[in-house]
Amino acid sequence: MGEHRPTRRSVLRTVGGISTAMALAGGGVVASASGAAAAPKAPTADDGFGLRIVDRNESDPRMWYYRFATDAVEWDPGVNVLLPDGYHTSGRTYPVLYLFHGGGTDQDFITFDRLGIRAWTEGKPLIVVMPDGGHAGWYSNPVNSFTGPRNWETFHINQLLPWVEANFRAYAEYDGRAVSGFSMGGFGALKYAAKYYGHFASVSAHSGPASLRRDSGLVVHWANATSAALDLGGGTVYGAPFWDETRVSADNPVERIESYRNKRVFLVAGTSPDPVNWFDTVNETQVLAGQREFRARLGDVGIPHEWYEEPGGHFVREHLFRRDLDGIIARLRPA
């Protein structure tokens, strides 16, 4: 794909953090709990997946909100489940998009609600699940934590995914699931799609890093620095001063190229610095370089992928997100 100039932008800017490292973790939208909705049969408090509902709001016809107690994550993570129009009366089973937010103290599971996900999905036959991923959880089980369990990967893959499929009319199969995200969440989407090959038929990264080891492992250093400062009380995702090399390789998209075969792959990155926000510039420079490396490797082995480079920095581009949604629906099993 060539460059496509944006016509309409929903800007999600990175807010200053502890260091340059914190920039890549995410953007900036202040969040608070919002409502979320589900099937005629309300989800149960405990379905044997290690989750216990401690707060819920099902008053909104489309957006249902839950907060869980789980041994995987010490502080109770929240989840928004956005249902398609007509869900309660259609009787249909729907494909599901798992949508991940970026990092920083100002992002959580309602980030995409603030950006406009309700309007973007209006009339589309798709369930969208938007879970917490930590301030700098990096969609991982950390090597160590000094603030209690922060096992986001366990929560998302082993607990939340089966809970969703047990409680909503959602396809519990490869062709019924997609994963996407922004920034840190885009990395999480790429990681999960490769590491759990049979789970997701479509993967999208909106300004998400795709190469952990390039530039002397800059993204790994950033993940360690941000997680240590914001979530783990000095612990790290990948280990410091010495990395868990096996874990880095298992999570690194550019080292898992064959795991993207037979999937829909959608990538977005910005090409120009932000004259106002220096953190955005640092973020997107590294994202762009990593995505180009990733795309080159996909091309070398003949794996199709759709990609866009556009002027601007580190933010969600609404028109490309809407295009991505249409592609996700076209790829997945229809409702």
From TrEMBL:
<dbReference type="GO" id="GO:0004144">
    <property type="term" value="F:diacylglycerol O-acyltransferase activity"/>
</dbReference>
<keyword id="KW-0012">Acyltransferase</keyword>
<dbReference type="InterPro" id="IPR029058">
    <property type="entry name" value="AB_hydrolase_fold"/>
</dbReference>
<dbReference type="InterPro" id="IPR000801">
    <property type="entry name" value="Esterase-like"/>
</dbReference>
<dbReference type="InterPro" id="IPR006311">
    <property type="entry name" value="TAT_signal"/>
</dbReference>
<dbReference type="GO" id="GO:0050348">
    <property type="term" value="F:trehalose O-mycolyltransferase activity"/>
</dbReference>
<keyword id="KW-0808">Transferase</keyword>
<dbReference type="Pfam" id="PF00756">
    <property type="entry name" value="Esterase"/>
</dbReference>
<comment type="similarity">
    <text>Belongs to the mycobacterial A85 antigen family.</text>
</comment>
<dbReference type="InterPro" id="IPR050583">
    <property type="entry name" value="Mycobacterial_A85_antigen"/>
</dbReference>
<protein>
    <recommendedName>
        <fullName>Acyl-CoA:diacylglycerol acyltransferase</fullName>
        <ecNumber>2.3.1.122</ecNumber>
        <ecNumber>2.3.1.20</ecNumber>
    </recommendedName>
</protein>
